[in-house]
Specification:
The protein has 4 helices and 15 strands. It is an alpha+beta fold. It has 2 domains: about 130 residues, no CATH class; about 45 residues, no CATH class.
Length: about 230
């Protein structure tokens, strides 16, 4: 049982690390430049969505986008007692490796624990700026004083929502012909990055030619509109 549980938790950690690692493409300022930020997410984007690929939910309200994923683990008291990495504490499963407590319910001799992971993809504030762009939403997440990660949220038929992260294109020369590309050398912990500072027109052309946001995309299908806020 331990191997199964640890394998699941390792998967969770990997997912969170991938979500929080340095992006491949870094922008010098929020995109598109010269476009006024929005103070709230438009109503037509608000709702609860579902991703079939990784069985995750996406909650979108007027100020935030939150990803939610659940894991179900089954074990027994005997298995927990035999494993030095696991412990029952006040009716909860404690995993020492991860210093985490997980609620338990009993069904006969079986103990069931449900692990819920919440990951805030975006929340409007001074360091996370939302801008409109040709019917899309551009999420700008500040990394440092002059470095931003940029994601594009799109909607098709009012029901299918996609989140695209900027990725280094195969044809870097084509991108460089539109705007100056600075290649940042990768290290053992940070893969190679490129740094861009396009004008509003250059950003539009980059998007229209599918140079950055076409290859890295996750899609969610709307389950139903969301009338209440997330928090």
């Amino acid at each position: 049982m331990k191997k199964g549980l640890i394998r699941i938790l390792e998967t969770v950690i990997v997912v969170l690390l991938l979500a929080s690692c340095q992006p491949a493409v870094v922008f010098g300022e929020p995109q598109p430049v010269d476009v006024k930020p929005l103070s709230r997410i438009p109503n037509n984007f608000i709702g609860i969505y579902w991703c079939k690929v990784d069985s995750a939910s996406l909650y979108v309200d007027d100020g935030a986008i939150v990803r939610r994923k659940e894991f179900l683990i089954k074990t027994t008291k005997e298995e927990i007692a035999a494993d030095p990495e696991l412990e029952l504490v006040n009716g909860q499963l404690y995993v020492k490796d991860w210093e985490g407590y997980f609620p338990l319910t009993e069904k006969g001799d079986t103990l069931i624990s449900q692990i819920i992971i919440r990951d805030t993809i975006f929340a409007i504030n001074d360091t996370q700026i939302l801008k409109p762009f040709k019917g899309h939403l551009v999420l700008n997440l500040k990394l440092s004083e002059d470095a931003w990660e940029v994601l594009v949220v799109s909607q098709r038929r009012g029901e299918l929502l996609s989140i695209a992260r900027a990725d280094i294109p195969d044809n870097l020369a084509q991108l460089d012909s539109i705007t100056t590309v600075t290649v940042l050398k990768g290290t053992d912990s940070i893969r190679t990055q490129i740094y861009l500072k396009p004008t509003a027109k250059e950003f539009e052309r980059i998007y229209d030619e599918g140079l950055l946001f076409d290859g890295s995309c996750t899609e969610y299908e709307r389950i139903f509109p969301l009338k209440e806020v997330i928090y």
